[in-house]
Hints:
Elements: H1 7-20, E1 45-49, E2 72-79, E3 86-92, E4 100-102, E5 104-109, E6 122-124, E7 132-134, E8 139-141, E9 154-161, E10 170-171, E11 178-182, E12 196-197, E13 205-206, E14 208-214, E15 222-227, H2 229-232, H3 244-254, E16 261-265, H4 282-291, E17 296-302, H5 305-309, H6 327-343, E18 347-351, H7 364-379, E19 385-387, H8 389-393, H9 415-424
Parallel strand pairs: 15-16, 15-17, 17-18, 18-19
Antiparallel strand pairs: 1-14, 2-9, 2-11, 3-8, 3-14, 4-7, 5-6, 5-9, 10-13, 11-12
Helix pairs in contact: 3-9, 4-6
Amino acid sequence: MNPFARAASVAALTAALSVTATSPTVATPAPGGAATDRAHSQRWSAAWSAPLMRPSAAPWFRTWAVQGFDHQSVRQVVRLGAGGKAVRFRLSNLYGATPLRLSGASVGRAAGGAAVAPGTVLPLRFGHRDSVVVPAGGEVISDPVPLPVAARDQVALTLWFDGPTGPATYHQLSMATTYRADGDHRGDTAATAFTDAVRPGYGSWYYLGGVEVTGGRPVGRAVVAFGESTTDGFGATVDGDDRYPDLLAERLLAAGRPIPVLNAGIGSNKLLADSACAGDSALSRFRRDVLDRPNVGTVIVSHGMNDILRSGDQICGVDRDDPPVTLQRLIDAHRTLVRAAHARGVEVVGATLMPFGGAPFWTAETERLRRGLNEWIRTSGAYDAVADFDRALDPEGTGAIPEGYHAGDHLHPSPLGYRVMADSVDLDSLR
């Protein structure tokens, strides 16, 4: 049976949810971040999120961001950090130059690859309509979908574009496969039509900024992991969900604390400077990607390595005359993040930067800056707690990640290294 034949019966449940948890279509200005949905912060909990980026064509990634989509369905699979009786989705056109027309969407339980579990596909609507126009620089929030989910469940979101989208707001490094099919395949449970995928490479997410849940057991305040590629998960297993934030969420669940851990890492991102292909600076995006998420209790800040390693916007091949990176500038930026979090009542855990001896970027000066920032994070008292990733991975202080614990580049952890990072976080420091 066509799953959309169930729409009439589902609509009644959706309407009932809407009475107690209104979810209007919301347009927000850009680039300044999504407005906080304060009225719903106690009813809705963030279960998944991704920091969004302007479309770019970084040479080492295959993405669909620059060309966008045209008469195509895009299926994206995400693992949720919290459960509930209903879900809703935040879709963003933050960096779009023109309005984005979404012709329709669906959601269901993921069943491996691009497949969806039969009998679980439900339409995703916006103000009770199948289609929606997302303003340039704005976002929309879907109507609630009565799809019961548990923490660590995977859901598959399918977006249908019956026309050209133009360049796509996206998240570059997903470490998860996204699938594409020609035509409208929202109702398909089989993976057959989704013959195109972001391979080889590390995957990307498109337009999807967040997933929220409501109606389940009380969820503790979310933890946001805020950082660079070592938070984003470069070096983890594609489709393996073994980045350090994933593994930290599993630890919390095993400890009887089903607290969502939201990943706000961006590969190659800088603390001090914006980048055309590596995202807005940490200072610029902190409010949007951390503080404006619903029901956040703690943020783990792991940032500054790319400022130390690369001058200007080298990651994009741009020779830029930026001010020199000094230890004091890095410290001042960290203090700014701590003050902003404390002003919102959010606890802040400072994470030390991991060693990178043996990597091409290593110099005596870059090592001096890394060690200096780490010493300040450990001893200044600016942070409420410290996650000492440096000492966890390099307890002997050699200045290098041991073999087997890095991804082959002496800079990014392997899945085993990410496990060490997750295990080193004091769960009592997460509020």
